[in-house]
Amino acid sequence: MRNFLVLGLGNLLMSDDAAGLHAVYALQKTYPDAANFRILDGGTLGLDLLGPIAWADQLLILDAVDVDAAPGAVVRVEGADIDSVFASKLSPHQMGLRDILAAAELCGDRPAELVLLGIQAENISMSMDLSPAVHTGLERLVAVAAGMIDDFLSSSQVPPEQGSVQSC
Question: Are 142 and 21 in contact (CB under 8 A)?
Fold first, then answer.
């Protein structure tokens, strides 16, 4: 059985930097954790994330990014390209995540499938409110993440054994 981790990152005190966390909170209302599926508020935890990342075969990171797109735009970045997005850090936790992914790779624990769904930040000043553009784009971020979760959950359903009894 493959393990899928959805990891939201950010700082709730820094406006748009919190977008990944807001997305995770929205997804947690619909998707409960299961034996092979977890949604985690990674906040700015740093090395504490190494264990959950090592558990995952498939990792979906939700975070605010700076990729020179329009504020609120949702981007999908995969594999090694994620490291280059975090090379120009928007927030201090992104450098930490780059280091954590490198440490996971050194230990042989970097997830085989790694996707970053990012939302272009507009404002990362001290505020607990998202900018209007990121607030609007958050719905798209959650919808794209939900589609990926649905795909995983539908493909990870184990067919019942012959002769087993199922509830209807």
Answer: no
